[in-house]
Amino acid sequence: MYSYVFVVCGAEKHINTLDFSISYLKHFSNYEIIVVTDSSRNESPIKHNNIIDIKVPVDYNNHQASIWLKTSLHRILPKGILYCYLDSDVISVNKNCNNIFNYYHSPISFASDHCKIDQFSPYAINCNCLYKYITEKDTFEKAISNAINCSNYPPDFHNPNTRELYGILENIKNNPLKNIVSIFKMLLSLFGFKFIIKNNIVLDKKKKGFFINNEVFPFLFFYRKQIKEKTIYKLNLLKLKWKKSDNTYLAKSTCNHLISEIKNNFNIKITDNKWQHWNGGVFLFNDDSYDFLETWHQMTLKIFENNVWKIRDQGTLIATVWKYNLQNHPTLPHEFNFIADYYKFNIKAEIKQNNIVITQNNKLLNPNFIHVYHEFGTKGWNLWDSIEKIYN
User: Fold this and answer.
1) Residues 260-274 pLDDT 10s
2) Pairing relation of β-strands 2-7 and 82-86?
3) Rounded distance, CA 76 to CA 36, Å?
4) Is 84 in a helix, a strand, or coil?
5) pTM for the whole structure
């Protein structure tokens, strides 16, 4: 017996997101759908008739309450069922979504996240690393903008031309061998040659950038001398990285503080700071998952009381995985939790034969669930536009 389960409580925007996702799941699946909530906290009613209403301790805010419910599902739900938990922003996009239940591996099955543990770390711990990265990045962009005085810098990532250009550049960077001709053209442009890189995007040294649809987007390499003269930044030509006048590089958006805090708080040693951790947005569980989920729940309650930790469940999920030595446990195929990152510009979506097809780094994927963890409902984003079309 199979059932889907969602958890939500609190703000109206979260309930609206849930209502949207449930409408899609009902369209593509006939399996039971359960919503677990604390209705006393909700700003609007949930448009669903199979609801389990649980009173969460009043000391928790709505965000904590949602996590409390999510990590308590093993205590709340009926026994003898294989459940598929879905975050409210996970959207089913075809009938193959039901095949997810075939991929359960005891004691529990999650999908991989779209980043590694060191990349996730500053989003889990209040270690100042993320703030330092954002602050230095903003300072750098403001200085460069003043130095080059170009309307398309810093880049506006809601601009379709910007997104197309950055998508092509990401694809070239991630697939250098397949894009050797484009790389060769870019190198020749340094000597003053003008070339069409791809899709009628012209790299022109005279214009100091890429020309697309009557817009010019600066290529900072062409401005390196100007930037060095007017700012504290200079380009390391060997590494193609910007350095400050004190010869240090810009702050990174990665750290190992999560690994340290897991060791300090739970005495669990993580030996791989590049481990591909699990994403908490989709997972399969049943009665065999009780101990894992109970440990996850208790660890999460512990970090609620620790200001070093941000209020999330994914850091404690990582700790639980390593506690049970499950770091090499099978994960769900990516098509059951395709994480839609608005800022990965090389992700392209289109509809073929009534299915959404994703192209990324020259690879094709037919997702069954799409996890829209930010920019939910953003029209003009071809991935979101495809989601809306697939139902209509």
Assistant:
1) 999 999 999 999 999
2) parallel
3) 9
4) strand
5) 0.93
